[in-house]
Amino acid sequence: MEGAEREARGLTRPAAVARLVAVAALTQFVCALALGGRVHPDETHQFLDVAHRAVWGFGTRPHEWYAGMRNAAIPGAIGLWFALLRALGVGDARWIVGTVHAMVGALSLTAVVRAYDLVARVDRQRAYAVAMVLALWTPWQNLAFRTLGETFSALALLMALDAWERAPRRDVRVGAWLGAAFVARYPAGLFLLPFVMAYVRDRDVKGLARWAFGLAVPVGLLGALDAWVWGRPWHSVFAYADFNLVRGRAALDYGARPVWFYLATVWAFAPAALLAVSLRRPRLRDGGMPLAVALSYLAVMSLLAHKEPRFLLAIVPALVIAAGRVVTVWSPRVARAVVLLAALQSAVAAAVLHRTQVYEGDAVEAAEWVGRQHDVAGVVLLGVSHPGYVHLRRDVPVWGDGRNDVGAALARMEASPRVRGTRWAIARNGDAARAVRAMGWREVRGFGDVRVLME
After folding, report:
1. Lowest mean pLDDT among 97-101, 192-196, 235-239, 247-251
2. Domain spans of the chain?
3. Number of neighbours of residue 366 by Cβ within 10 angstroms
4. What is the model's pLDDT at position 66?
5. Most CB contacts within 10 A, which of 124, 171, 225, 284?
6. For residue 145, what pLDDT is reported?
7. Between these two residues, 428 and 233, which has the higher pLDDT value?
8. Are 284 and 325 in contact (CB under 8 A)?
9. CA pair distance 217, 291, nearest whole angstrom
10. Which of 17-20's residues contact partners 24+ apart within 8 Å by CB, and which partners?
11. What does the alpha-carbon distance between residue 244 and residue 255 come to, in Å, rounded to a whole number?
12. DSSP 8-state assignment for residue 5
């Protein structure tokens, strides 16, 4: 019994889990410091700013919230935390956003624990190394502490997979966790398909009924929440399906990519070394439900015209688990190579993201600094996207121009009757910053490649 509880490196499960959690937490902390910003604007505008608007009375409102394509479950939970912070007198954006990231990050540490357990049910010898790959994997850990539907749906899926493989199977919990994944992000409804097919294949009518009951609880609560917020049960589900599937507006408004996009990019967003090893004489039966969910999700999502890298990241933990389970060519040497190559690939990915400022960490930091100044009457953005009022923390007009036309943006600010006081500009260094300086504005602070100027 003792031998079965120990890893190849002599680690018991508690010791292995403790190390994995510590490494994952450290990876997230490094990502937060080095990358900052946001993986996608939805992180702010669909979640944090919605909660901020509900509690403090001001915040951005994207078109999804005008059309009713989002539900208030996660923004509502964040809003409760914001209400507590407001009652305690906390007003600094760094604390407001940082505490949310810390809580989501702590919740996401369960992913490496689930990865360890799900791989250990096939082969305990490789469970630690595979879970360590996920703990070190920058693309996932950089997403794991952020307020995006992809984060929450991925974590709920792992809980469902864990409940599915326990003996006896916990059908109600499986359904409930999958329902929670759907509430967090509607494309996570694709996770349901392999589970239904498994019940039908096994002719497990009672198990399917228990699963459906568990699923009905979060989905039913979603219907009640939508009825309260939007006036109709499941309004956000129907509005989302109409916009994305019926009218295909996501592809028209935000762009379409070829069907092979995820197949071509999975090597960048998932650990390539582990994927490569898993493709050499894989034992597909050992992949089980993690493999079925990962492949079915990627297949269906590939058929949809609008594709984004973050949609792929939502399935990366399950894909890592599946790859770790189907491997047949494995040894201590292979394990060390896979972990080291994953760490190297993660470091390169982090360095590229930091250098390119894809996540606009400098712009977000600049907005937070402007918001802490004594006199802020208005802000113009040039070459950067809207950081969200949760970062700015000032109920003032914010202007921008899609063509980075400095004159047009400043003219709109000049014409506004709301601007009575000091006006600020946050500009990407280069032509935009030089144009603002040429108009007599004074540069007062720099954040990486972003400049803060005041009139």
Report:
1. 247-251
2. 3-356, 361-454
3. 28
4. 92
5. 171
6. 97
7. 233
8. no
9. 26
10. 17/112, 17/113, 17/116, 19/132, 20/112, 20/113, 20/116, 20/128, 20/131, 20/132, 20/135
11. 12
12. G
